[in-house]
Amino acid sequence: MVTAPFRVVLDANVLFPFSIRDTLLRAAAIGMYQVHWSDEILDEATRNLIASGRMNDDQAAHLMAAMRNAFPEALVRGHETLISSMPNDDKDRHVAAAAVKVGAQIIVTSNLKDFSPMPEGIEAQSPDDFLVDLFDLAPENIVTLLERQAAALKRPPITLDALLAGLGKTVPQFENDVRCFVRSRDT
């Protein structure tokens, strides 16, 4: 069980881009935060992975099973009675309710407009802002995580530079901060 100091709910829209999902889950796996999601969030991510053509039904089911197995403590239950009292957009109230139920401080989402207002004590952050915050807390840990992430990708093989370039399409400030750190470290 991860005993990181803060809890985070990941919205479905940050779980279907591969590199973002991989980076976020690797950070959780090394204890930088406690990851949480609900069945509704995982179902939405599954639907989007299939609808976008990124995965077929079997691949998406395998991914979700792997995520559940890797983070058995992540699943939030019993939040359903809170959904109607959440102040944010109707379609995303289930995400805010899951955050309240588990005592999360942050919801990571690419759709910030639907997460305002938020219940007190919970902040919605973009994946870029969240990853920048994690990087600011432990830059060496994040660079090591990214180096391992790049090394794990074998079909096709990928360099750290290529991984960062891909991440930079959706998390540009994070990419920039990591590149600056690596340049200064390597000189």
Automatic annotation (TrEMBL):
InterPro entries, alphabetized: PIN-like_dom_sf (IPR029060), PIN_dom (IPR002716), VapC50_C (IPR058652)
Positions of the VapC50 C-terminal domain: 127-177
Residue intervals of the PIN domain: 7-112
Family matches, as Pfam families: PIN_3, VapC50_C
Name of the featured protein: PIN domain-containing protein
Organism name: Lujinxingia vulgaris
